[in-house]
């Protein structure tokens, strides 16, 4: 059976089987022209959309359907985390080849629904269409954040310290290992990334971060974007960068510049954020309850240069990765 | 020049050139991890998403780029109209072949931005990606509606009268003429459909409609969906159906059953709504200020049958069109 054997209504019914009952604040859910939701009192609303395209963002040869569904939602949740927002509602737009096996469709929905339940975001609606091209999944999400608490990219000043959650490089290394067919203990870091929602929310609530971004396109790209939006430069301490140990081993064998490979590898979905030194104590709650280790990796500078500093001297930060070009 | 020659940042900058300054309620607009907007006081929020896929929903051979952009937004605005909602914010997710001419990209954005300005909806963010497949445009929109005023599909009761805005068949006939290369006075009805936002808003504000839906998949499909959601049947008066005159001529020559062709042709984006006979006077404002003629075409019945009634007798309503199968 493929999705082309079923009507749109039958496919929507299969999606609904994976969903919990709609919350009370969702006045109208799936099945009408649009969904209707009650906004959260005294909160601003956060909106974002992200797409995964087969062969561009994932390869069905080694990405199980549940991972496709998980990632399609997680990349959006990571954007909410980077704004300090709490997830609310999601819209799913699926463009599917008619030959997509029904079991794969079910797996995608299962992966998305499991991640949604875990992070308390509710599917409010969506769109299903056939496509003669690759499987394309667009997810749009809404979240809520207190007024004047949203974390933006442009708030860093010279002297602010740069912090990173978790470790980097694992997703990019895992993707290379998956492509090469090499068994890998870190495959899950690529397949099932964990959005840092609790950390983002704590940073926002406590006004602990002056700027924040998620690492969808790698650390080097994230540093460049925070610096660009804030009008500062940055010096990153190479020895301080928390590169995942398995990724470090892999890149040491596979890459002429292992550090650059880890810095430019995408799909990590950690948070990079800036902290004013004199308000560093506001980080306490994020450190204790953020659910992920955080590491100081550098500092923002008045000089606009973006530098990687090591015992061997300074070198320019590697360029970021462009999904488009 | 094609879109593949530019970076994502350069393409985003081209989009911003077509946009007005963000409104005051948009605290964070394009360029951060997500947008931040102030909800409307004492309003519920309406959310929907719709996708256009090249070759499935449009053909670049006869659909100019501005029409692609216009339609991608208009189909979503039509869903807001069907809920009685006022447009607020839009998210645009574009998956583009790298070979898409830059002029086409600009045209798509221009068409979308022009429709957005006209209907006062503001682009809050989006996503750009390359695809090895067809041009795929996903637009998600938010709107606002007063509590307990949202128009739903499921509120019709036996005895409620069914009304239709505008005329039907023109978009489907125009699409056939465009495909055939036949010059057509009604090409714009397919290329630049007009969402019935004012009518939807008036129906909601005045509680004039007990149920409402837009005609994206044709009148027969819309009647079927309102009846199904409401648990009623319907009798449609064939002579009363306002079929566009040019479409009627076209279908008389091209189709063995011209009425069925008009009833099942999609892309009209008119509104079908049910009205309780004893509150019919609430329609006054919608008739006077809705911006489009409305016509009574039938009645909801306790008998679950869906019938098309004419002097020749009753026949079953034609089946709807499925975009998917």
Walk me through this protein's architecture.
- The structure is a homodimer of 325-residue chains.
- By secondary structure, chain A is of the alpha+beta class.
- In chain A, 33% of the residues lie in helices and 25% in strands.
- The first copy, chain A, contains 10 helices and 13 strands.
- Chain A has helices spanning 8-17, 65-83, 102-118, 170-180, 187-191, 197-205, 219-230, 245-254, 258-264, 284-289; strands at residues 26-28, 35-37, 44-53, 86-96, 122-130, 136-145, 161-165, 211-214, 233-237, 271-275, 294-301, 306-310, 313-316.
- In chain A, the strands form 3 sheets. In chain A, strands 8-10-7-11-9-12-13 form a 7-stranded mixed beta sheet, with helices on both faces. A 4-stranded mixed beta sheet of chain A has the order 3-6-4-5.
- In chain A, strand 4 (86-96), helix 3 and strand 5 form a beta-alpha-beta unit.
- In chain A, helix 2 runs parallel beside helix 3 and helix 8 (245-254) crosses helix 9 (258-264).
- Chain A is globular and about 60 Å long.
- The model of chain A has no long low-confidence stretch (mean pLDDT 96).
- Chains A and B meet through strand 2, strand 3, helix 2, strand 4 and strand 5 of A and strand 2, strand 3, helix 2, strand 4 and strand 5 of B.
- Strand 2 of chain A pairs antiparallel with strand 3 (44-53) of chain B.
């Amino acid at each position: 059976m493929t999705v082309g054997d079923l009507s749109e209504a039958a496919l929507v019914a299969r999606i609904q089987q994976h969903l919990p009952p709609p919350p009370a604040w969702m006045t109208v859910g799936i099945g009408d022209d649009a969904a209707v939701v009650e906004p959260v009192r005294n909160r601003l609303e956060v909106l974002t959309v992200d797409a995964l395209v087969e062969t561009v963002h994932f390869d069905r040869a080694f990405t199980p359907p549940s991972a496709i569904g998980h990632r399609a939602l997680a990349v959006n949740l990571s954007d909410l985390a980077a704004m300090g927002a709490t997830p609310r509602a999601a819209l799913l737009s699926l463009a599917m080849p008619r030959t997509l096996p029904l079991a794969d469709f079910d797996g995608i929905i299962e992966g998305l629904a499991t991640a949604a339940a875990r992070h308390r975001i509710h599917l409010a609606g969506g769109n299903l269409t056939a496509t003669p091209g690759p499987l394309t999944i667009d997810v749009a999400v809404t979240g809520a954040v207190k007024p004047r608490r949203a974390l933006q990219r442009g708030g860093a000043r010279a002297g602010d310290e740069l912090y990173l959650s978790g470790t980097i490089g694992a997703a990019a290394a895992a993707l290379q290992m998956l492509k090469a067919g090499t068994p890998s203990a870190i495959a899950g870091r690529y397949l099932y990334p964990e959005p840092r929602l609790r950390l983002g929310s704590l940073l926002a609530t406590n006004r602990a971060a002056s700027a924040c971004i998620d690492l969808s396109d790698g650390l080097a790209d994230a540093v460049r974007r925070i610096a660009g939006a804030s009008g500062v430069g940055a010096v990153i301490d190479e020895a301080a960068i928390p590169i995942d140990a398995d990724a470090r081993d892999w890149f040491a064998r596979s890459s002429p510049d292992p550090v650059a490979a880890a810095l430019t590898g995408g799909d990590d979905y950690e948070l990079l954020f800036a902290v004013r030194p004199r308000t560093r104590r506001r980080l306490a709650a994020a450190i204790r309850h953020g659910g992920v280790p955080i590491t100081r990796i550098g500092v923002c500078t008045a000089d606009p240069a973006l530098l990687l500093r090591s015992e061997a001297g300074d070198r320019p930060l590697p360029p970021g990765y462009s999904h488009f070009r």
